[in-house]
Amino acid sequence: MAHFVSLASVGVLALVVPHSLAVPFVSEAETTVRSNAATTASVVAVTNVTSHGAYTGPPATTTGALSTEVTALTIPARPPEQYKLQYPADGQLHQPQPAPYTPGGGLGTNGTEPVYRVVSDFDYESVALALYQEWIELDLFHWGLARFSAEEFEAAGLNAEDRFLIQFMANQEVGHATALTNMLGRNAPVQCTYNYPVTSVREFIDFNQKLTRWGESGVYGFINHLDSRETAQILLQSITTEARQQLIFRQFDGLFPMPVWFEIGIPQSWAWTLLAPYISSCPANQTRLIWQNFPSLRVLNQPNPARINGSDVWNETTGGYANTLSTRNISRSESCLNATTGQNCAPAISRNRTIPLSYPGRQVFLEWDSPGKTVGPNNSYVTSVSAGYPRYAAWVSQLNVTYTPLQDVNGNTAYTIQPNTSTYEGDPAVNGTIFLAITDDDLFVTPFNLTQINPHVNALAIYQAG
Ligand SMILES: *[C@@H]1O[C@H](CO)[C@@H](O)[C@H](O)[C@H]1NC(C)=O
Ligand SMILES: *[C@@H]1O[C@H](CO)[C@@H](O)[C@H](O)[C@H]1NC(C)=O
Ligand SMILES: *[C@@H]1O[C@H](CO)[C@@H](O)[C@H](O)[C@H]1NC(C)=O
Ligand SMILES: *[C@@H]1O[C@H](CO)[C@@H](O)[C@H](O)[C@H]1NC(C)=O
Ligand SMILES: *[C@@H]1O[C@H](CO)[C@@H](O)[C@H](O)[C@H]1NC(C)=O
Ligand SMILES: *[C@@H]1O[C@H](CO)[C@@H](O)[C@H](O)[C@H]1NC(C)=O
Ligand SMILES: *[C@@H]1O[C@H](CO)[C@@H](O)[C@H](O)[C@H]1NC(C)=O
Ligand SMILES: *[C@@H]1O[C@H](CO)[C@@H](O)[C@H](O)[C@H]1NC(C)=O
Ligand SMILES: *[C@@H]1O[C@H](CO)[C@@H](O)[C@H](O)[C@H]1NC(C)=O
Ligand SMILES: *[C@@H]1O[C@H](CO)[C@@H](O)[C@H](O)[C@H]1NC(C)=O
Ligand SMILES: *[C@@H]1O[C@H](CO)[C@@H](O)[C@H](O)[C@H]1NC(C)=O
Ligand SMILES: *[C@@H]1O[C@H](CO)[C@@H](O)[C@H](O)[C@H]1NC(C)=O
């Protein structure tokens, strides 16, 4: 039982080549040394999930998020630590060097042996959440490949090589699940069963594109807050792979692959809120999580990337939370799959949409649930809020949270206007696959303290900007 990942076992294949600067060399190198593969670290046990669909079993005996003694209702905003304001940052050296070519400072740089292991509740709960995400991706990618025929994939513009790429992404998840399991130890969450709001290849791709968005952003939100920087290192190297998956699924969705300058990070409870509805059940002794489940937000005119005029839609998603596209009511003439250049959205390296999916000034109609609904594995988690009366829509993208007032608030419905705001000059903040929350306040938060928004959140969704 590995409590931490040892990198020492990584084999080095040394090719002993005569070292001489003398030419001539031949262009076809000849391997002269044979090497048996070094020990290969085994991967976690993966069983193919065979059942999919909504949970139908008995009510769960254990419900609600994991919790312990709670010492305060919220975390107050405090002034910055003074030392962070003192380094001169003038390009000169201000500390002795611990070794040649080695600047003073840094964390984990003084030669102590790395320990690839979680060291706090914060670490455990964060990495366990990431593991739940890796598990669903592993199943989801396999499931889609098995669920749809080669003909259905071909009709959506995805050929055998594209499908192999999806298969390879599933294999990557085996590695990610293994690394995270090793860092968590023997009570690490295991694979569950799932339900996917997907009935066509296009819906599958769009769901993947959105699910990997919160998978990626969920980790960006906490990785720099981890106590264990060694754990953060491994996690970083897995999440950058996930980031590529997200981009590739956008390409498969016929979207511009990366219409932003910065990828957003989100709080753990947001990632869990968006993930949990698609987990049907987990084994009896599954390790539970501490994170909050916010109520579902539905974007009633959520832009539909499968349409030529993607913003000309009403109630065309497969449900709240992910708000992924539905293809059920798109006629051939409205579909952008085989449309002309500028309107075409077949899989491609990059696409220009002449009719944007969304735009500043767009009226966005919203409807959200009240708290108190059961959700997640075995319906054993319960949605909750501590926010008061809903007053704002929070557009969370790139480095920014932009609030727009809710208008015509009527029970659990309202509309708002998509803001015209830039992260930096030339970089419109609201673009790509972003997060939209209903809040009771326009609290100022920045990327490193975004979690402070949670007590003010009423409901949460993915918004398809572009
Ligand atoms: C799981 O399914 C894949 C095909 O999707 C197959 O290659 C693999 O052998 C299966 N694994 C198990 C443990 O059944
Ligand atoms: C978040 O950080 C910003 C500075 O980046 C600060 O002005 C703001 O007050 C902080 N918000 C909260 C709620 O702590
Ligand atoms: C090494 O650095 C860590 C912080 O990164 C510190 O806690 C520890 O005391 C240092 N050890 C030595 C031997 O300096
Ligand atoms: C697009 O074209 C492909 C190949 O010609 C075809 O199989 C598919 O049905 C078409 N789809 C739409 C929505 O027109
Ligand atoms: C959970 O239960 C299964 C089956 O009873 C068992 O194999 C596994 O070791 C248990 N896991 C934990 C963390 O107790
Ligand atoms: C979003 O990005 C795409 C691709 O760069 C661009 O064509 C579009 O104008 C952008 N939308 C907004 C609202 O900035
Ligand atoms: C969840 O449901 C599954 C399937 O009905 C069952 O096997 C499992 O024991 C349940 N888990 C919990 C924690 O109740
Ligand atoms: C696309 O749909 C929007 C919203 O219905 C409409 O305002 C716009 O004129 C349409 N654009 C085109 C080019 O048809
Ligand atoms: C949206 O469509 C669903 C069925 O797909 C329906 O149950 C719901 O009432 C509709 N909502 C609105 C606001 O039209
Ligand atoms: C399908 O689209 C037509 C118009 O193209 C509309 O009248 C109808 O209400 C839509 N049906 C559903 C279920 O959304
Ligand atoms: C793509 O769109 C951008 C603006 O969004 C425009 O500047 C560029 O000319 C377009 N390129 C093509 C080939 O359509
Ligand atoms: C977005 O965030 C960046 C970086 O913190 C900041 O400089 C910029 O002013 C913000 N933009 C808006 C419109 O608030």
UniProtKB/TrEMBL annotation:
Record the organism: Daldinia eschscholtzii
Q: Secreted among the record's keywords?
A: no
UniProt signal peptide: 1-22
What's the name of the protein? Protein rds1
Q: Which domain of life is it from?
A: Eukaryota
PANTHER family given in the database record? PROTEIN RDS1 (PTHR38705:SF1)
Q: Keywords for this entry?
A: Signal
Instruction: Determine if Coiled coil is one of this entry's keywords.
Output: no
